[in-house]
Amino acid sequence: MALSREQMAQWVANELKDGDYVNLGIGIPTLVANYVPPGIDVMLQSENGLLGMGAFPLEQDIDADMINAGKQTVTARAGASIFSSAESFAMIRGGHVDLTVLGAFEVDVEGNIASWMIPGKLVKGMGGAMDLVAGADNIIAVMTHASKGGESKLLSRCSLPLTGAGCIRRVLTDLAYLEIEDGAFVLKARAPGVSVEEIVAKTAGALRVPDEVPEMRF
Amino acid sequence: MALSREQMAQWVANELKDGDYVNLGIGIPTLVANYVPPGIDVMLQSENGLLGMGAFPLEQDIDADMINAGKQTVTARAGASIFSSAESFAMIRGGHVDLTVLGAFEVDVEGNIASWMIPGKLVKGMGGAMDLVAGADNIIAVMTHASKGGESKLLSRCSLPLTGAGCIRRVLTDLAYLEIEDGAFVLKARAPGVSVEEIVAKTAGALRVPDEVPEMRF
Amino acid sequence: MKGFDKRVESYADALAGLSDGMTVLAGGFGLCGIPENLIEQIRVMGVKGLTVVSNNCGVDDFGLGVLLKDRQIRKMVASYVGENAEFERQLMSGELEVELTPQGTLAEKMRAGGAGIPAFFTATGYGTPVGEGKEVREFNGRPHILEHAITGDFAIVKGWKADRYGNVIYRHTAQNFNPCVAAAGRITVVEVEKIVEPGELEPSQIHTPGIYVDRLIVGSFEKRIEKRTVRTAA
Amino acid sequence: MKGFDKRVESYADALAGLSDGMTVLAGGFGLCGIPENLIEQIRVMGVKGLTVVSNNCGVDDFGLGVLLKDRQIRKMVASYVGENAEFERQLMSGELEVELTPQGTLAEKMRAGGAGIPAFFTATGYGTPVGEGKEVREFNGRPHILEHAITGDFAIVKGWKADRYGNVIYRHTAQNFNPCVAAAGRITVVEVEKIVEPGELEPSQIHTPGIYVDRLIVGSFEKRIEKRTVRTAA
């Protein structure tokens, strides 16, 4: 069965290493924070200028001057630092953030990602997504494998305007975890109960399937 | 008679405007701080990261962590701020410093300045001088008009390696105050008792002498 | 002798000289740390044809959104302009020109503007619509695009505390774009919650040194919250 | 779980992995705010052939000067290298390669290195020996030269207070190049006077966020003064 949003978040959370600085995009990536494994401490970077994002505040502690990049009221955890947008993106662009997790509309075998604009629909802007994909060494794109109509979002060439070129090497979908190598998706793991055949059918870009494709465990 | 070092400093000090942010180079420029006219407040920028340099400390207040760009122990005045070298030169390069006063070996009619290197002699480095001359809108070069041997330092073309190209418009020497316009020095004022003829004789670069050349007053 | 006393008497004084067609840089992220009262003063002045550079454009009835409603903005340079119906309408109808700029590039363009760096290379935006028509050059085996600095005729900034010298500190994440904006204005106007006595701000803890600040005023702030998210006590 | 605890046990641990031929960025201005004990540790380790990037090169018997004396430095990138007789000797004899870089360009090159900006244009140095061989381009009617970012294998930094997360603040003008250096090291090592409890440093007042810091150690410092200048009580 396809992974739930929570399972996708949980899977990503298991990739976290103790001491990682992590930027989580809006949507499923945000949920990752709920599944950080015990014994692991990570520091969340919010690109509006907060390193060390904490929990949401208690009602009585809400502070309009303390928000995250999603404009939600938040708190700062122990060890947090707060700085300007220029400094925040210096951190991101300079490759100091260990892991970036973000949603995507499409990815392709060249590591291109499209996540911010659907022509003909209203464009609200890329926010910090282009900086994040260009800046982090390690990015996990989290997305559904295919549209509701069954059309693959893992393509040989993105059809939508790009967020970044050649910057994605890791993709988690609701069906599988894949890495991008030498112009192809490589199937590394499949969701519990999802067949290799289904993944093959729903992957439009070149796909390499190893002899063994382990099933994810939760 | 040629101006003394103190008179040169005093003349420059009279050019200060209330509220100016000023960077003073080593040597005569440093003395300018002693002659700030009453009713005028200026803030001194020291390029190691101090805006609002104060007096030297009392013996008992010396602090190794509080120095100026000349590496002298100093204090910070009311309204001072302290920041990184990157921020300090952002300020300088960005043209936020109103006035820079610095010494020079040579200047020429194109506004070039040479102040940091004499080939064949040991080179100690340009420090912040190249950034300062490229960054300030308003620079006063302070220098002797000619060498002890009588050779002019106001040239048609600098002979020494440059500190900056085309960046000087105002020159105060021990003999005169001149501005650089359209490829020539323009004699704006002469030191008390110094004749226009002496200045003409000691200026190698093109020199325009207006009908009236006022004598400086002290 | 006024010296370094940057305080002005009124919001009218704070924005004196702002006129039609100028470029205004505005601090803030979403509705956090925005110069509320300076924006309101621009509305009151009724200047038109502005180019506004700001990460966001407020909401329909608050922040920069009110200037959109009054059609005072000709062009918007921003990274994200959601949450604003009037914005959508003007964008679709072609009344408003929009230059979408990646958030980090926007911050760096203003930082560069303040720092006298006319242009810089960044990997951000290469291969995307943002990179179209821009010079591409490879560094360390990776393509980068050339981006140019941004400066403004006016910069409007929201600080927390300042002294009369114009030294400013920001509170929590209300810092965001404000220091970048402050450095990049030809005339930089800062409104703060509180003006403190000289000496109260530790020199090495000042976020925006007074050299960047031309005018300073105290305001009172609504500080509207866009997304109120809370947890319940465990 | 070590998490974000950046503290190491010894100076040997602090510089573990530093080896011959590496590039080391060092904070400080003159002898102010220099990482005294980390420099001493490099001396003790005896690594050779280093490229050192630092505004100055210490004096004969203190600071980076001791590494010159031991001929551990192959190349020096600096803006000013006076007050050092051994330096003069090695420079004249050709034993030492020196790349003189304007002070502001040096700071900006390291800031760029830390910020992922591979190159930028600046007017500084145009038309001078510094500009020779560099690309020239006009912006706003003025020629600028292209300068490249600097990063280092190690960055050695002197802070004042830090918490175990590696968040650092600097004291007075001992800040200088230290934050620029801290951001530009592949491995950044900070020595401080004091490690404080988490929460003692106000998040918005931190100069160098812990994300830039890999290793942290407490040292004791001589803090030698280069030019003792005083006034007498009036």
TrEMBL record, chains A, B:
Gene3D superfamilies: Glutaconate Coenzyme A-transferase (3.40.1080.10). InterPro entries: 3-oxoacid_CoA-transf_B (IPR012791), CoA_trans_fam_I (IPR004165), CoA_transf_AS (IPR004164), NagB/RpiA_transferase-like (IPR037171). Coiled coil: none annotated. The keyword Nucleotide-binding does not apply. One of its GO terms (molecular function) is CoA-transferase activity. Keywords: Transferase. The keyword Nucleotide-binding does not apply. NCBIfam families: pcaJ_scoB_fam (TIGR02428). Belongs to the 3-oxoacid CoA-transferase subunit B family. This is CoA transferase subunit B.
Automatic annotation (TrEMBL), chains C, D:
SUPFAM superfamilies: NagB/RpiA/CoA transferase-like (SSF100950). SMART domains: CoA_trans (SM00882). Belongs to the 3-oxoacid CoA-transferase subunit A family. Keywords: Transferase. InterPro entries: 3-oxoacid_CoA-transf_A (IPR012792), CoA_trans_fam_I (IPR004165), CoA_transf_BS (IPR004163), NagB/RpiA_transferase-like (IPR037171). One of its GO terms (molecular function) is CoA-transferase activity. The keyword Transferase applies. It comes from the Bacteria. This is CoA transferase subunit A. It comes from Solimonas marina. The keyword Transcription regulation does not apply.
